[in-house]
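hey m, so remember when u said the tokens were messed up on ur end? i reran from scratch. heres the input so u can diff it against urs
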Amino acid sequence: MKKLGAGLAVLGVFLMIAVGCNSSDDGGSSGSGAGSNAQLSDGGESGVQLGMSEQEVRDILGEPSRTMPSSWDEMDAWSYVQADGKKTIVSFDNGRVIDVASSSK
């Protein structure tokens, strides 16, 4: 369990750097992992839900602009950049969504 927590912390820092700091006050809350009752940090705008498979995410958002595999515990992050500059990062653990974060340009 400690390994998973440490991995999520490192992944979280990486995602904050990848997405950038969003200084707008959108009232969104940050997701905190699979099995949590927390809201997704993109407010559900993307249609992606906690626990979805990678294929379900592809069906909704298409192929990612960039993938960021991790070297520990089957964790990955996918980045999407839309034409309007909005960025979405979907984080996976063992092929299931554990967090979705969005920011606008």
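this time it looks ok to me. The mean pLDDT is 72. if urs says something different then somethings off w ur setup not the seq
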